[in-house]
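Re: that backbone. Tokens:
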């Protein structure tokens, strides 16, 4: 009789624990997936950090993290990678157990070969009941993204055209060893020449400070990108335009020339804005005037996010982002015929215009 009573009590306890754990299997468990960097170079490894946390005061015997990756994400085969039977990607799955207030972290290396903005599916967190008969799952609500900038365009003709265009800018910049017109000051970057450092301002304890010269003594460039592909067959030309834009901006960075980039394209989301899946913003994006690592990162992000369809007509884009009277030189990267573009870009005296088109001869113009 005692044994029967003990068996019934044990069965009731097990059933009670089973019912409780089914209802509260995920209580106190948290999981997140964060890319190591928003930007992922095409074809280069990008790291995803997966973390599971047990915020309760008791041990959780079985916790599972699952992340489904579309076929566009390349990942090496491993024990924790499962291929989908329908060929619609792969699933990364980690199983572990956690002590009270413990966390487990994992790293997944992926590669993306094509330029663009990619959404990562939400991470799935699972835990079993007391008897291990069922698995309770919950998808994390936070959506993550990766932005893949274009590859550089390595064309000898592009290098020659840039060299000719920058020759005059370089001469004007280094002609005056001590420019007179100083418009203000800004934090020093490693690409600033030593002669631009204001030692008086730097001595005030704010770190190294560079002089900010007036536009009459410090050259500035506006880089405009207008690429249009009415048909799918013309999309490679658009991609080459974005690649040329990256190369142009990288050269300007190396020369420490202040520049501004504007891309005439629709975008899925605004930079540093909230994720709005499926919505497009019919307004070109641009950077401010400047140069340096953070400025170039913003350039790469804009070029990676561009959807490839113009947000405005070429004429309106040029008028809005290179208005008459602008005291800057201009580099226009476009799929449009050169004779259509030049009338839209009026130059001030002493400024230069360089028109770049994919796989075609470039045209350069200067005003006296």
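Recovered sequence:
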């Amino acid at each position: 009789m005692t044994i029967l009573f003990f068996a019934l009590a044990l069965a009731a306890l097990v059933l009670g624990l089973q019912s409780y754990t089914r209802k509260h299997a995920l209580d106190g468990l948290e999981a997140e997936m964060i890319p190591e960097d928003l930007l992922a170079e095409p074809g280069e490894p990008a790291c995803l950090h997966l973390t599971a946390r047990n915020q309760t005061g008791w041990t959780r015997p079985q916790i599972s993290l699952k992340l489904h990756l579309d076929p566009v994400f390349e990942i090496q085969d491993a024990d924790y990678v499962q291929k989908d039977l329908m060929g619609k990607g792969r699933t990364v799955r980690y199983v572990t157990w956690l002590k009270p207030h413990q966390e487990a972290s994992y790293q997944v290396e992926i590669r993306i070969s094509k330029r663009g903005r990619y959404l990562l599916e939400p991470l799935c967190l699972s835990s079993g009941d007391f008897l291990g008969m069922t698995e309770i799952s919950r998808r994390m609500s936070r959506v993550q993204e990766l932005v893949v900038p274009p590859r550089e365009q390595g064309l000898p003709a592009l290098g020659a055209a840039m060299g000719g265009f920058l020759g005059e800018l370089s001469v004007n910049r280094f002609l005056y060893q001590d420019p007179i017109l100083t418009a203000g000051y800004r934090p020093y970057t490693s690409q600033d020449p030593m002669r631009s450092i204001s030692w008086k301002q730097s001595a005030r304890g704010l770190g190294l400070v560079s002089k900010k010269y007036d536009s009459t003594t410090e050259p500035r460039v506006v880089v405009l990108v207008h690429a249009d592909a009415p048909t799918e067959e013309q999309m490679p030309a658009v991609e080459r335009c974005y690649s040329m834009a990256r190369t142009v901006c990288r050269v300007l960075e190396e020369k420490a020339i202040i520049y501004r980039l504007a891309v005439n394209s629709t975008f899925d989301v605004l930079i540093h804005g909230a994720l709005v899946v499926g919505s497009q913003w019919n307004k070109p994006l641009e950077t401010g005037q400047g140069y340096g690592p953070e400025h170039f990162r913003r350039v790469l992000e804009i070029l990676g996010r561009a959807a490839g369809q113009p947000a405005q007509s070429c004429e309106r884009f040029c008028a809005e982002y290179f208005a008459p009277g602008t005291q800057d030189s201009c580099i226009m990267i476009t799929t449009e015929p050169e004779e259509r573009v030049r009338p839209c870009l009026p130059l001030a005296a002493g400024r230069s215009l360089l028109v770049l088109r994919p796989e075609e001869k470039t045209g350069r113009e200067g005003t006296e």
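The first strand starts at residue 29 and ends at 35. The helical segments are 2-23, 156-175, 199-202, 235-254, 293-305, 314-321, 338-341.
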